[in-house]
Amino acid sequence: MTLTLGSILLASTNPDRLRTWYRKAFDVTPNQDGFLVFGGVAVLIDQRDDIAATPAEPGRVILNFHLDNARDTAARLDSLGVTWLVELEERHEGMLFATLLDPDGNYLQLIQFSAAYLARTGKGN
């Protein structure tokens, strides 16, 4: 059996506002079906009437964005006035890491893997 995580539904009571924010924040354009494609994972932001306006447990599911240049992305997010839970900082092996809130209050993380981490794990090839 082949199993692939191909998409994520990000439910919102205000999907137009949230979709617009993601487009600006990550410079991404929806595909013909309305999905925002980040590498191999597509995110559909859609209306749901059975949810609260903000998540009760925003850390339950966290979208991790792996970036080549976390500093530029953090600067763009700063210009949008985001709320940082953890500002961009250097961590183990020189990796850059940050946690922020999207307009609905969902947690997002920015991760830039260091050359040392990529070399150690063999993921840099």
TrEMBL record:
<dbReference type="InterPro" id="IPR037523">
    <property type="entry name" value="VOC_core"/>
</dbReference>
<keyword id="KW-0456">Lyase</keyword>
<dbReference type="InterPro" id="IPR041581">
    <property type="entry name" value="Glyoxalase_6"/>
</dbReference>
<dbReference type="GO" id="GO:0016829">
    <property type="term" value="F:lyase activity"/>
</dbReference>
<dbReference type="Pfam" id="PF18029">
    <property type="entry name" value="Glyoxalase_6"/>
</dbReference>
<dbReference type="InterPro" id="IPR029068">
    <property type="entry name" value="Glyas_Bleomycin-R_OHBP_Dase"/>
</dbReference>
<protein>
    <submittedName>
        <fullName>Putative enzyme related to lactoylglutathione lyase</fullName>
    </submittedName>
</protein>
<feature type="domain" description="VOC">
    <location>
        <begin position="4"/>
        <end position="113"/>
    </location>
</feature>
